[in-house]
Amino acid sequence: MYSQLFTWRQKGDYDDLFDFDKDKVIPYFEPVSDFILLIESMIKNKARR
Questions:
Q1: How far apart, in whole angstroms, are the C-alpha atoms of residue 48 and residue 2?
Q2: Contact 32, 5 (CB under 8 A)
Q3: Alpha carbon separation from 13 to 1, 26, 27, 43 (Å, rounded)
Q4: Whole-number pLDDT of residue 20
Q5: How far apart are CA 38 and CA 45, in angstroms?
Q6: What pLDDT does residue 37 have?
Q7: Can you give the pLDDT at residue 25?
Q8: Which among 19, 22, 24 has a CA at the least distance from the CA of 4?
Q9: Distance between CA atoms of 27 and 23, rounded to whole angstroms?
């Protein structure tokens, strides 16, 4: 997942033209949201120590 997101970011930032396909992007919404929540939780737990 992370690798695909990085690839898309690179294309979006540096390619001349790049259109994201809705059918390919939407399935990433929930896993990315879960990943963000996990990272936030890890940061908060680290700060409590």
A1: 27
A2: yes
A3: 18, 20, 21, 28
A4: 87
A5: 11
A6: 97
A7: 94
A8: 24
A9: 7
Answer yes or no: are the C-beta atoms of 1 and 27 closer than 8 Å.
Answer: no
Spell out the per-residue pLDDT of the chain, length 49, in tens.
999 999 999 998 999 888 888 999 999 999 999 999 999 999 999 887 7
CA gyration radius, the chain: 14
Q: Report the half-sphere exposure of 7 (CA within 13 A, side-chain side).
A: 6
pLDDT of the residue at 17: 87
Q: What's the pLDDT at 34? A: 97
Q: What DSSP assignment string belongs to the chain?
A: -HHHHHHHHHHHHHSS-----HHHHGGGHHHHHHHHHHHHHHHHHHHH-
